[in-house]
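Notes from the 1:1 (GR / supervisor)

We went over the backlog. Supervisor wanted to see one worked example end to end before approving the batch request, so GR pasted a single chain during the call. The sequence is below; no edits were made to it. Supervisor asked that the structure be written out right there so they could see what the output format looks like.
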Amino acid sequence: MKHRHAKSGLFLFELIFAILFFALASAVCVRLFAEAHLTSLHSRDLSQALTEAQSAAECFKASPDDLRQLASLLGARQEGDTLVLDYGHDWSRTDQEGEYRLVLSPQGGTPAAAHITVSKEGQVDPLYILEVKKYQP
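Structure output shown during the call:
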């Protein structure tokens, strides 16, 4: 009778150990999936920021030196010597302050240059920074 009790105790110990192992493995898997999701969101933001900055740079290169014409071409609003574009959470343009912001700051000089920064609200570091120059004959 005692011999049978020892076998059931060993079986319960093995069962508890297997449950503990699978619980730890599932916790690691959930953490990895969460990190992969956050990396995917950051990658999407970076890709879209790059696209918007490149588009603004091409508009800057194609436009004359008039900031108002550049603002019209970009669909941006002028704030002093800079142009500002706001985007919503899905990167659609918005007239109000959005989750994402592109700021184009002309630098002047020869060749003409501009500093383009795309940032996300609430983050200290910008998503993307682009320096662009254009030759003016």
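Supervisor's comment: The mean pLDDT is 88.
Batch request approved.
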